[in-house]
Amino acid sequence: MAVSGDARHAVAIIGGATAGAEVAGSLARRGVETVVFEQNDRPYGKIEDGLPRWHVELRKKEYRLIDQKLSLPGVHFVPRTKIGRDIPFEELVKGWGFTGVILAVGAWRDRPLAVPGVDAYVGRGLVYQNPFIYWFNHSVEKGYDGPVFEILDDAIVVGGGLASIDVVKALQIETTRQALAARGIEEEVLTLEVEGIPDVLAKHGLAWEALGLQGCTLYYRRREEDMPLVEAPPGADAARLAKVAQGRRKILEKAMRKYLFKVCAQLAPKDVVVEGNRLVGLVFQRTRIQDGKIVEVPGETVEARGSMVVSSIGSVPEPLGSIPMKGELYCFTDWKLGRFENYEHVFSAGNVVTGKGNIVASRKHGAVIAAHVIERFLGLDSAGHAGEEAMAAPAREAARETAEVIAREITGRPPLPAATLSSIRERVRRRQNEIGYGDDYNAWIKQVTPPDMV
Question: Is the confidence at residue 2, as pLDDT, over 70?
Fold first, then answer.
């Protein structure tokens, strides 16, 4: 990548997906050299690995937007490089000489299911959302060599948000495909997702009951109308909140009719149900909502058994070097710019700050996505997925606004000595050579993209 002859600053960005690309673009347009460290071959993050593969057009559009920014002059891409593993975090922050370091690592660690001893059964009845959807997206590629999961009927899904709806859809679509294949009928994932399970079955003269499937069940600790499928605008009055609750229930009911899963609300996971060395279910505590808070109903528990348990209760950032954490989240002293005590030139952008792992997470509190856009995103609207790119826009806009503030902060600092800039470029080039990266971002993406990548 060509370098700017009059560059005065160099910034490291950890993570190349939506937030990282927005920051890189904003800085590059101001003449700041940026080095984007990406742990994977491709920089698409949750768009590629966390957004189910039926979102074909949305994924393609987001890929193009990221590519446009990371191929700008002055942006150096360093793939296959995980900070904390390949380059120590402290070394990058304190030893390389960057004007600033921006964390755009997203939220990739599944929030632990708060059931004593349950993680002992990962791979033995318990599956977490992030590796599950990663497998769902990539397992159809010929060269895939990642984790492998068997999709079983009668699964228990613990969740309640948009991501958990994606999980139950994947389960229902795949078990339906398997049942149809046993009858010599082949149907594509996209067909079942777009048309819905009842309509596809009707084309073959079949009803759901004829398949002999139980279907999966989504368990949620609050009420159905509390599911965060539609966000309430800031300062909403009682009438508006009631309308939001009604919209949430409507979306959920549409999804249940189209994909035939079940929902059990006001049940919080409490204990494991084990047979031999395998998790075969969970004990749930009955809850009620009092003044907006979850309250356990004493003495009321429900035992639920299923073929597998999928936890889809959210994603949080992974620990990174000596960055301070408070519970599951990074401990920021400045939430606007994602700054930390004792790291005056480290900033953060995107889901690493929100502590959420989906593409719609945003710190821009005014960015409330309309119910009809949510319906399109979930495949429930008559227009299908047309226009669903509006789902990603608020997060992208929030990252852009953060990037502009960080850019002003960076460019207001003393310029780096020419020797420091030269040293940074040399170290970057050395690392790129180590992992076989040439000097052309677009050529690299073409090289590492499987021909059958969905």
Answer: no
Q: What is the domain range of residue 158?
A: 112-310
Residue 386 class from Cβ within 10 Å (0-12 exposed, 13-18 middle, 19+ buried)? exposed
Structure tokens at 15: 């993570």
For residue 238, name the pLDDT band (cuts at 50, 70, 90). very high
Q: Record the tokens describing residue 416, joined without a space.
A: 């780096």
My answer on whether 262 and 189 are in the same domain is yes
Give the pTM. Answer: 0.92
The count of domains in the chain is 2
- Cα–chain-centroid distance for residue 365? 19
pLDDT tens, residue by residue, 369-389 = 778 888 888 889 876 776 677
Residue 165 shares a structural domain with residue 287: yes
**3 domain residue, yes or no:** no
**Residue 321 region by backbone torsions, left for phi larger than 0, else alpha for psi between -120 and 50, else beta:** left
Tell me phi and psi for residue 50, to 5 degrees: -120, -15
- Between strands 156-158 and 217-220, the pairing is parallel
pLDDT digits (tens, 9 = 90+) for 245-279: 999 999 999 999 999 999 999 999 999 999 999 99
Rounded distance, CA 95 to CA 88, Å? Answer: 10
318-342: string of b/e by CB count within 10 Å (b at 16+)? eebeebeeeeeebebeeeebbbbee
Q: Are 168 and 378 in contact (CB under 8 A)?
A: no
Q: Looking at the structure, do residues 284 and 181 belong to the same domain, yes or no? A: yes
Is 372 inside any structural domain? no
Q: Is the backbone of residue 91 left (phi > 0), alpha (psi -120 to 50) or beta?
A: alpha
Residue 365: which pLDDT band, with cuts at 50, 70 and 90? Answer: very low
